[in-house]
Amino acid sequence: DKCKTCYACVRVCPVKAIIVEPNQDYPSVINDRCIGCGSCVQSCSPNAISYRNSKTEVLDLIASDSKVAAIVDPSISGEFDDITDYRKFVKMIQSLGFDFVSEVSFGVDLVGKQYAELFENFLGKFYITTCCPPIVSLIEKYHPGLIDNLAPIVNPMIATARVIHKVHGSEVK
User: Fold this and answer.
1) pLDDT tens for each residue of 16-63
2) Could you give the C-alpha distances from 139 to 1, 46, 72, 129, in angstroms and in order?
3) Cα(20)–Cα(29) distance, rounded to whole angstroms?
C-alpha cells in the first residue's frame, strides 16, 4: 500500500533480485536471488519494503522456560544516549527477560585473532572475509567458483554464540 512505484529498489539492488512484471502493480523480490544486503530497504523512502521481523519469536523464547541470551552489537548504545553506564544497559536488557547479555565485540576479538593466524600462514592463497553474511551469500549464489576462497572463519555473532553455549550450556537460546 505504501509503494509509490518509484523503482528505487530495482535500481539499487546489486544482484537484480527485484523485478517489475508487466501484469504487476508493484516490484517484487525474487527470494532465490536476494542476498539480504538491505539496500532496497534503505532506498525505499515510503518504507514500503518489509523484512523479516523476529520480535514475536524472541518474545516467545523469553516467555518459555529456556535460558535466553541477548547478543548485542556495540552500536546499540548509540540508540540510548541517555544511558552512560553500561551496567544499566545490561540490566535493562535483562529486565526484558534475557538471562545473559553479551556484546558481539567479544566475538570480534576472537574472529580477529583467527584472521591474524590465517593471514600469517596464508601460503599464497587469497581469502574473502566471511564476517558479512550478504557477501557470503553473494559468493555462494553468484560466484561459486570462489567458495574455496571464503575464509574458514565464522562471523563474530556466531563466535559469540558458540562461547555462550560453551560457558552457559548448549540449551541456551
Assistant:
1) 999 999 988 899 999 999 999 999 999 999 999 987 889 999 999 999
2) 34, 31, 27, 11
3) 9
